[in-house]
Design a protein that fits this description.
Length: 429
């Protein structure tokens, strides 16, 4: 496998990747599938009209989607395209990020099975966090299987009283000889129903200040005491779950990172999450400019000045978001740590989803609410109802604005009266 890079290598790599994709996947039927996914409009009436942000499907259907995603990822992994920029010792190819971008540009022209939040969480958040904090044995045990989708991992962070203020979590982990015993409740866990593992943050020292007494664990869902219950959301599906941990016993080799270092593990994982969603990873969720343009063409309203203005507005915001994401990627490429651009990128992404909702609502009117069976119309309801969820997930809009206010604009930080107090002495609801 290729491990060095020059311009010529990159072009050769592009040709090989394209050939492999052509042999293994179907091209999108979009008009002008040129590799530049910003131009043109999707072909009307071709393929699925789903623009769902969250699936509204049965467990069997979701399981079938995951099986298709798994099948694709295994082929991609075995062909050497799944871990291009990962270190060789973890099963990667040690190539620069330019190869990942090149591959992603090529792959975007093809229909790739997607299966909701679990695969990207598992690969983009859990595998990466394990690679940052894991022991050699943990990295070997988890990283490649997560990246090949042989196993799935989810994020057991939020609790009923700890979301934006995650550091207030109260799930408890108590040491008992070589084992830890976990008790508590997690909530909003995306994909838990189909995951085999969860990355949990638990409190191991209630007398330390709230950010300090936490520790991270890898929790096998087959362990006695783990119970997963689906939460029904307004789109109809149950992509999220409550996860109850009752006397769950874990060997110490499932502790991720040092005792008391859980907050750093959590922040690292949340950083990967912000980079993923802010960096364009989520930009293919729901409907986008191309589908709105296709709808406007179908409705024959593209000469209407207001519609033209709306489409231009969507397009401009879409492009500005892309440039912001590229700026963030360039920082990372230059060896700098991801900055507040990820917060900007996430805000722009969720604002764009809301703009799309507004645009289709005014284009479709009552057709958004009444299912006439017409392709590409009623289906938009699943975008409109799902989009607000991402304004909360992975740090709400308000929290992203706090980050930008403090780190970009240099505004005074929020008062944190309980920061240095023992957690056990803080007042909690
Ligand atoms: C689609 C989706 C997927 C998710 N997936 C997961 C997952 O897989 N794993 C997981 O652990 N969690 C997950 N979550 C939970 C998510 O991380 C939390 O919902 C989020 O952090 C907000 O926490 P909360 O719901 O407790 O709201 P709260 O923190 O109670 O916030 C309520 C409101 O107050 C505002 N607010 C809170 N604090 C401040 C502040 N300091 N300044 C200004 N405004 C503030 C918030 O912006 C919000 O509007 C998911 C959530 C969603 C919506």
């Amino acid at each position: 496998m290729q491990t060095v890079s020059t311009e010529a290598d990159l072009e050769q790599f592009r040709t090989e990747a394209r050939r492999w994709l052509e042999a293994n996947a179907e091209l999108h039927t979009s008009v002008g599938a040129t590799g530049d996914d910003e131009v043109g409009a999707d072909a009307w009436g071709a393929g699925s009209d789903s623009v769902a942000v969250f699936y509204n499907i049965s467990e069997e259907e979701e399981s079938a989607l995951l099986a298709a995603s798994q099948d694709w990822q295994r082929r991609k992994f075995d062909a050497g395209y799944a871990m291009l920029n990962w270190p060789l010792e973890l099963g990667g190819r040690g190539l620069p990020n330019s190869y990942v971008r090149t591959y992603n540009t090529e792959e975007a022209r093809f229909v790739i099975p997607s299966a909701g939040e679990l695969p990207p969480t598992s690969m983009g958040l859990i595998a990466t966090t394990i690679s940052a904090f894991g022991t050699e044995q943990q990295k070997q045990r988890f990283v490649a299987p997560l990246m090949r989708q042989d196993i799935y991992g989810c994020q057991l962070f939020s609790e009923p009283s700890a979301g934006s203020d995650l550091a207030s979590l109260t799930t408890r982990a108590v040491r008992d000889g070589d084992e830890w015993v976990l008790d508590g409740q997690k909530v909003w866990t995306s994909g838990a129903k189909f995951a085999q593992w969860g990355l949990a943050i638990a409190r191991t020292d209630f007398d330390a200040p709230k950010h300090k007494g936490q520790t991270a664990f890898l929790v096998p869902f087959e362990a006695p005491g783990v119970e997963v219950r689906g939460i029904r959301q307004m789109t109809g599906g149950t992509n999220f779950n409550e996860v109850f941990l009752t006397g769950v016993r874990l060997q110490d080799d499932l502790r991720l990172g040092a005792v008391g270092d859980g907050w750093r593990v959590a922040l690292t994982c949340l950083g990967f999450e912000r980079d993923h969603s802010g960096g364009g990873g989520g930009s293919h969720v729901g409907g986008g400019y191309r589908q709105v343009a296709a709808l406007a063409e179908h409705l024959a309203v593209t000469t209407d000045p207001v519609v033209r203005q709306t489409l231009a507005d969507l397009y401009i915001h879409h492009r500005v978001t892309q440039y912001t994401n590229r700026r963030a990627a360039t920082r990372i490429k230059a060896g700098q740590t991801p900055g507040p651009e990820a917060s900007l990128g996430k805000l722009m992404w969720t604002a764009n989803m809301a703009r799309v909702s507004d645009a289709v609502s005014s284009l479709l009117g009552p057709r958004l609410l009444a299912d006439t069976g017409e392709w590409g119309t009623y289906a938009w309801g699943e975008h409109v109802l799902g989009a607000p969820g991402y304004r909360i997930a992975g740090g709400s809009d308000e929290i992203q604005r706090n980050i930008i206010g403090e780190r970009v604009l240099g505004l005074p930080a929020e008062p944190k009266v309980d920061k240095d107090m023992p957690f056990s002495a803080t007042k909690r609801a």
